[in-house]
Write a structure and sequence with these properties.
Layout: H1 2-76, E1 112-117, E2 127-131, H2 135-139, E3 144-146, E4 157-162, E5 183-187, E6 191-203, E7 225-233, E8 240-253
Parallel strand pairs: 2-3, 4-7
Antiparallel strand pairs: 1-2, 1-5, 3-4, 5-6, 6-8, 7-8
């Protein structure tokens, strides 16, 4: 009887140890699964915040460069029926800083009309600009959006733009790094429009008066040419808007070639 009791106790002890080992194994596997999920989540966040943005920015810059090259090629290639003109040595090749800006028609939603260069943001910065400020049509896939109803580059009034500060290539990520008199150049088929940065301001998302013809001045007719760039602030949040104001400096027709301020940028 003693041997039978000992055998029963031994079997129960083995079963208890087996259950303990099974429980430990299950907890270990579950822990490894949670750890793996956590690592994958961190990798996804890293992709979204850094790697994906870096790739998105490079893609947008490449598209902007391609658009610029296409406009240059179209201008340099005369129609087959048009003879090439002989250069007149009496005409100066120096761009006229007082050239009257060519004002393009307002671009439709998602229609690319320009490329923006901001040397402060890097030599490779050349981001496409398109009509509209909706995320799915303009801001996410293209880059910089133009607020409908506001003037086009070079026109009197307030040319108003928007872009992401984070994600989707984050075109306005470095907007807070702008310094007084930094050049902001917009290229279109017609030529180059140069603006000079003046100041930054932080406002509530409801402060739409920054888009007025004279920013934040109601019922005032514009007698100057302004540029307003808007984005989210702080980064990764939407509680405020960061606004960068600039003033128009000059227009360079395409026939005169790129302005000096672009030297070494492209």
């Amino acid at each position: 009887m003693t041997h039978l009791a000992d055998a029963g106790q031994s079997r129960r002890a083995r079963r208890a140890k087996s259950r303990a080992r099974s429980g430990a194994t299950f907890i270990g596997v579950l822990g490894e699964l949670f750890l793996t999920v956590g690592v994958l989540a961190l990798l996804f966040v890293a992709w979204q915040l850094w790697i994906g943005d870096w790739i998105g920015a490079a893609q947008k810059n490449a598209v902007g460069s391609s658009i610029s090259q296409q406009w240059a090629a179209e201008f340099d290639t005369p129609p087959a029926s048009t003879p090439t003109a002989t250069p007149d040595p009496t005409v100066s090749a120096t761009p006229d800083p007082a050239a009257e800006p060519v004002i393009l028609p307002e671009a439709k939603n998602g229609k690319v009309f320009g490329v923006m260069y901001i040397p402060r943001f890097g030599k490779d910065y050349q981001v496409p600009m398109a009509g509209g400020v909706t995320r799915p049509v303009t801001l996410d896939p293209i880059g910089i959006g133009h607020y409908p109803g506001t003037p086009m580059p070079g026109a009197k009034g307030n040319v108003s733009l928007a872009a992401h500060r984070t994600t989707y290539g984050k075109p306005f990520n470095k907007i807070a790094k702008l310094r007084l008199n930094d050049p902001i150049i917009i290229e279109t088929k017609a030529g180059w429009y140069v603006y000079r940065f003046r100041n930054l301001e932080y406002v509530k998302p409801s402060a739409v008066d920054v888009l007025l013809p004279v920013p934040q001045e109601k019922d005032v007719k514009a007698d100057g040419r302004y540029l307003t760039m808007t984005s989210c602030s702080p980064m990764y949040w939407k509680s405020e808007r960061i606004v960068a104001y600039s003033v128009f400096e000059s227009f360079t027709p395409r026939a005169d070639g790129p302005p000096d301020v672009l030297e070494g940028v492209k």
